[in-house]
Amino acid sequence: WCSPFPPVDARALINSNFNMQGTELQQARDLDMKYSQMRAPGIYGGIPFSLTFGVVSLLFVVAGNKPAYLISQKLLLGQLVFQVVGAVAYVVAVGLYIHFVITVNSTDVCKQRAILYAGRGYTWMNCDVTGGDAAVALFGLITAILYTVGTVLTFQTIRGVRRYLEERERRAAEKEATRGSAQSTPLQAETIFV
């Protein structure tokens, strides 16, 4: 088997030279630890939020796995409300997450950390919003769009089911009315002339 990529020495990656020693290395570790602890609520708050909405969404998918006219109206209304709440909640959550990231990145800890790393040539360690943060925000906005589309489709399904049920009731009433009128008239013998 031939790899198109050149071989990489794992020891070079693990034992990378950080150009820091002694108190400077300890200061970098301390600042990294503080920075990570400041960012933790955003991560540990976002994960349960996303998992909860994902699990409830899957429950609605499983519960709705039959023809629309057989699904409970209450379930469809619950799904509609959940999707509206989900779309709004994801937009709000993305805004709060970006605000949180910007707030953490504007602290003295982040600025000291960036200065310390920049002094050794590590300019990528800065206090800007990173691509990972932008990806999280983009994922959240895409999810909000999907919930919005789901809201529209569920609303159309509810309208279609209501029309179907009304039509079914109307036909049943007509059928009952024709059956009732046929039974209320007395039977008469037909006279046939030859």
TrEMBL record:
Chief place of localization: membrane
Places the protein is found: Membrane
Domain MARVEL, first and last residues per copy: 1-159
InterPro entries, per database record: Marvel
Domain of life: Eukaryota
Topology within the bilayer: Multi-pass membrane protein
Annotated keywords: Membrane, Transmembrane, Transmembrane helix
Keyword Transcription appears in the UniProt entry: no
Membrane-spanning ranges: 43-63, 75-98, 134-155
Gene Ontology, cellular component aspect: membrane
Listed name of the protein: MARVEL domain containing 3
